[in-house]
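Protein Record: Sequence and Backbone Structure Tokens
======================================================
Tokens: labelled as protein backbone structure tokens, with as many entries as the chain has residues.
Question of interest: how does this chain fold, as expressed in backbone structure tokens?

___
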Amino acid sequence: MNNHSNDTGAFVISLDYELLWGVWDVTTKEKYGAHILGVQQVIPALLNVFENYSIKATFATVGVLFAKDKEKLAGFMPDKKPAYSNPEYNVYLKEFATMGNNEQDDPYHFGYSLFEMIRQSPHEVATHTFSHYYCLEEGQSAAEFDADIKAAVKIAAASNVNICSLVFPRNQINELYLPVLADNGIKVYRGNPESWIYKPRKFTAEVPLIRLCRLLDTYLPVSGNNTFALTKESGLPVNIPASRFLKPYNKNLAWLEKLKLKRIMNEMTYAAKKKELYHLWWHPHNFGVNIKENMENLTVLLKHYQLLHEKYGFTNLTMKEAAGF
């Protein structure tokens, strides 16, 4: 059953707001810290440009970022923690041990002021799990995931946020865990594109060939248009699949920027004409350096959305709204 109007297509934007919690296990502050600190400028810039183009987005926020400080966070920690077989994924033993006390002391791990900006805006606040939980890695269990989600829902409720939507970290969608979401009141999630190159995988399965195919797909129609109509399975959360990751500006690939944007705009146009959905996503920290160029690229896409809105009635929806809630 379709959950959005069949009269028009829909344009969905979701952002994974995670700061260092999303990348601590694959990089360092020394290598990536500028991207994380740049989010302090990126969030206000995004909220401003979204307002200018009448866009509502979904900000999938790691639960830790709902806390003002370490003391407040301690009251929401889950009793059961993920027992990953690979200890390098153990965020509680690794990253929690290194964090500071608050946003002023440690802007890599805390971002409450930015969260407040988002919360007070018209955008949807969703969850990116409490601890940036990896649902396909070995060792962890459904019970541990349930504890993590309960913590995420509880810390959001303390800020008067009712969580309806979820984005799985690293896009590790585990369909066996969908009932856990439903049991915790989460009705919507972001799935992956249908192409095999975007199939949910554990981290070690992301081999170079797959990464290369995804890179090519950024510029060329390797995987097709990635637009879709919604379906709903009784009793399970609604899947609002991703269409395209908005790859950040890279000066070494600057000569391909126009091709990247054209690829996205062609997909958006296809969705508008076919009255289907198109779901664009990225992380705010992707824009944390080269902010000017990244915001200029986003503006090009939002202007194109406006043209499609005027010509075809293409409509902007949050994940929650796209699912009919």
In short: The first helix runs from residue 29 to 52. The chain has one domain: 10-322. DSSP finds nine helices and nine strands in the chain. The mean pLDDT is 95.
